[in-house]
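lol forgot to send this yesterday, sorry. struct tokens for the thing we talked abt
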């Protein structure tokens, strides 16, 4: 039995009429199934479904698969052509451009296949339903170009839909429709290489379409307000979540009065230099309300901010062509302020192993310089006698020299918040100048959080040089300089880490 019926994709949506034709040969396209005819200048799609006993449903599935198959191929052509066209007038890589115009190119690809004809054949012997579609490359090219040449008509339809959505209080839908209309005109202008002029609002006057859409878009965005409801002016702990969520409400002034902006996507970010962890996806609820949990604050200054605004995918690229919209869009935001709690009375346990000219220095010069810079203000230096009661001096030095800090951390965990440890070494250099002796020195200092075991700050200097009238004098000078320099660096790093 042979069933051959030509249907348009429009008829797929309204139902299929099954026509049985007996005693006819299989069509040419079905001669070598599952292989397709050799048509290098055409796009082809094939749908195959094994019979389930419900012929009408099987035909619909086979037809849908054939259409999906050919649509995927045409989508590649449309996306590639559109991306190459936009790349001539916009920055961004191919992937970014594809993402920014994905919804637009999808609509164009669907439109090209609006009147696609699909053939069907039933293999009675094997009870298999086949659906087949083909369209020439030239026809696809003509359809693509026609879609862009009639972009004003499509954009006008989108604009009218957006205006109705605004009147009905659906601001999120209106934003989406205005954006799609703008992207369609942008794509048409880049492909046709001319300014597209038309009557977008159908009032009988023609004008540059993109400029008109930007004005209307900005009018819509200008009606939107974002208000802070809660979570402002909190005090943050480093590496901890904010106590309260950031809450707010977004509304818009319309002809119906003030309406909530529901179901709109938001973005949140720390304003530099503050850093931390925030949720990646946010939406307002049906009341236009949003709530953002700040999972962690990892860095900040005395006063900081988290900015919440409308999400605009591809803003950096699209903003090059939609400058007015970009300006209006970024204006819809709210800054939630927070301060960092400064940690005080921080207890530091110091131990620096120092070798000067090959001999151990029982009282480290570098450690003294470190203490001078850290003592007072918010830091308290734990006395060495207390440290040695917890861990003997020789055992402590061996652990520091070997880089095994766990025994040190374990020993002082109940008397210190942080451990500051390091190694310093100086050695003689050759003496090229009579009467002047040179010494080189190297130092490495680390600050370790006793609770987490993490290194929160470090400083290192290598092969630094000083001269004097003896090696001993030169050695002392280099030790003092190393202590001053790493002391300043460690102080600044620890201050920043504990903000």
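and heres what i got for the seq, position by position
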């Amino acid at each position: 039995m042979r069933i051959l019926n030509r249907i348009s994709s429009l008829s797929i949506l309204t139902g299929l009429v099954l026509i049985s034709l007996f005693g006819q040969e299989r069509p040419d396209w079905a001669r070598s199934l599952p292989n397709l005819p050799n048509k290098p200048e055409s796009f082809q799609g094939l749908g195959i479904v094994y019979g389930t006993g419900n012929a009408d449903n099987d035909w619909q599935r086979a037809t849908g698969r054939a259409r999906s198959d050919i649509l995927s191929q045409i989508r590649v052509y449309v996306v590639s052509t559109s991306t190459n066209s936009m790349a001539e007038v916009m920055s961004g890589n191919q992937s970014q451009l594809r993402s920014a115009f994905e919804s637009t190119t999808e609509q164009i690809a669907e439109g090209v296949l609006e009147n696609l004809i699909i053939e069907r054949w039933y293999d009675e012997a094997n009870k298999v339903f086949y659906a087949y579609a083909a369209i020439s490359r030239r026809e696809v090219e003509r359809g693509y170009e026609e879609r862009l040449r009639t972009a004003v008509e499509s954009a006008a339809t989108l604009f009218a839909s957006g205006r109705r959505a605004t009147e009905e209080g659906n601001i999120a839908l209106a934003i989406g429709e205005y954006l799609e209309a703008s992207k369609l005109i942008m794509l048409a202008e880049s492909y046709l290489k001319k300014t597209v002029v038309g009557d977008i609002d159908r009032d009988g006057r023609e004008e540059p379409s993109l400029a008109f859409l930007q004005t209307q878009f900005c009018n819509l965005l200008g009606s939107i307000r974002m208000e802070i409801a809660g979570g402002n002016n909190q005090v943050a702990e480093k590496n901890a979540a904010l106590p309260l969520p950031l809450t707010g409400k977004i509304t818009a002034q319309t002809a119906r009065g003030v309406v909530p902006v529901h179901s709109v996507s938001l973005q949140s970010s720390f304003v530099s230099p503050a850093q931390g962890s925030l949720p990646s996806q946010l939406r307002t609820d049906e009341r236009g309300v949003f709530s953002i949990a700040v999972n962690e604050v990892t860095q900040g200054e005395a006063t900081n901010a988290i900015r919440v605004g409308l999400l605009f995918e591809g803003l950096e690229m699209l903003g090059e062509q939609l400058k007015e919209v970009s300006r209006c869009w970024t204006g819809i935001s709210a800054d939630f302020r927070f301060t960092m709690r400064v940690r005080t009375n921080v207890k530091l346990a110091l131990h620096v192993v120092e070798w000067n000219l090959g001999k151990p220095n029982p009282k480290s010069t570098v450690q003294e310089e470190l203490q001078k810079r850290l003592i007072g203000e918010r830091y308290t230096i734990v006395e060495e006698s207390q440290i040695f009661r917890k861990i003997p001096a020789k055992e402590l030095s061996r652990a520091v020299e070997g880089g095994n800090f766990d025994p040190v951390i374990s020993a002082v965990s109940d008397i210190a918040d942080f451990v500051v440890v390091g190694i310093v070494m100086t050695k003689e250099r050759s003496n090229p100048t009579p009467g002047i002796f040179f010494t080189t020195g190297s130092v490495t200092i680390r600050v370790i959080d006793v609770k987490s075991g993490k290194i929160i700050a470090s400083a290192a200097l290598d092969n630094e040089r000083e001269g004097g009238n003896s090696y001993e004098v030169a050695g002392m000078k280099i030790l003092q300089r190393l202590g001053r320099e790493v002391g300043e660096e460690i102080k600044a790093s620890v201050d920043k880490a504990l903000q």
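Residues 1-24 have pLDDT under 50 and may be disordered. anyway ping me if u want another try
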